[in-house]
Write a structure and sequence with these properties.
The chain is an alpha/beta fold. The protein has a single domain, classed as TIM Barrel (Alpha-Beta Barrel). Helix content is about 45%, strand content about 15%. It has an 8-stranded parallel β-barrel, surrounded by 5 helices. The protein starts with 5 loop residues before the first strand and ends with a helix. About 45% of the residues are buried. The model has no long low-confidence stretch (mean pLDDT about 95). Bound molecules: cytidine-5'-monophosphate. Cytidine-5'-monophosphate binds next to strand 8 and helix 10.
Length: about 240
């Protein structure tokens, strides 16, 4: 998957998804999340692949290691480009996920990149302290999960832009920092708590940005995509 913005296809049907995709070029990267995948299943992935899209399948697996390993074996056979797990599932679970992906990747094909969710970008300090009973600040929890993911040989993490720099410092430049919570300066933040612009994401060391409602909810999605891409690529190239 190249480093163009990844568009979150948070739609509830294939029909709406392809209606939306008609507005954009086929070279865009897309993210299929739980809503769309649970509704349309592997057929949706096959169709997106046929049309040439690079796909991040964002199902955020979190279960016992053996179950995650078996599920990852199946996901690898869909030939997507990137998949993920929750780092909170632990190092053994992350290693099992990687093993499952490796064993499910067809001969001659590239294994999907595997990244771990550290803390969701909708999570704030209060939740970490009062609901997760984690006594260190949010950024330390994110840093810890990133190091754990790296020690399990994952390719990177999902994190907020605010944490990308510190992760670059502790896990290196090549370790993926996939950052959702991207908004154009004037945009609504919706339910996200840790948001940033595409330009800020680049400055802070994000390797990939995930953009949903700032594009899918825009009056003119093509213009919004171009705006996001220019702000991001204007600095990257
Ligand atoms: O619409 P918005 O740009 O907020 O969408 C962000 C997308 O990224 C959603 O599909 C959401 O599920 C996903 N995501 C996230 N935070 C994470 C991991 C994934 O917002 N930590």
């Amino acid at each position: 998957m190249n480093n163009s913005p990844i568009i979150a296809l948070d739609f509830n049907s294939a029909e709406k998804t392809f209606e939306f995709l008609k507005l954009l070029d086929r070279s865009v990267n897309v993210k299929v999340g739980m809503e769309l995948y649970y509704k349309e299943g592997p057929a949706m992935i096959a169709r997106l692949k046929e049309e040439g899209y690079s796909i991040f399948l964002d199902l955020k697996l979190h279960d016992i290691p053996n179950t995650v390993k078996s599920a990852m074996r199946v996901l690898a056979s869909l030939e997507v480009d990137m998949v993920n797990v929750h780092a909170a599932g632990g190092k053994t679970m992350m290693e099992a996920a990687l093993e499952g992906l490796e064993s499910g990747t067809l001969a001659g094909q590239k294994r999907p990149a595997l990244i771990a969710v550290t803390q969701l970008t909708s999570t704030d300090e209060r939740q970490v302290r009062e609901e997760q009973l984690i006594t260190v600040p949010l950024h330390e929890s994110v840093e810890h999960y990133a190091k754990l993911a790296k020690s399990a040989h994952l390719d990177g993490v999902v994190c907020s832009v605010q944490e990308a720099k510190i992760i670059e410092k502790v896990c290196g430049k090549d370790f993926f920092k996939v950052t959702p919570g991207i908004r154009l300066a004037s945009g609504d933040v919706h339910d996200q708590k840790r948001v940033a612009t595409p330009a800020k994401a680049w400055q802070e060391g994000s390797t990939h940005i995930v953009v949903g409602r700032a594009i899918t909810g825009a009056e003119n999605p093509r213009d919004a995509y171009e705006k996001v891409n220019t702000l991001w690529k204007g600095i990257t190239s």
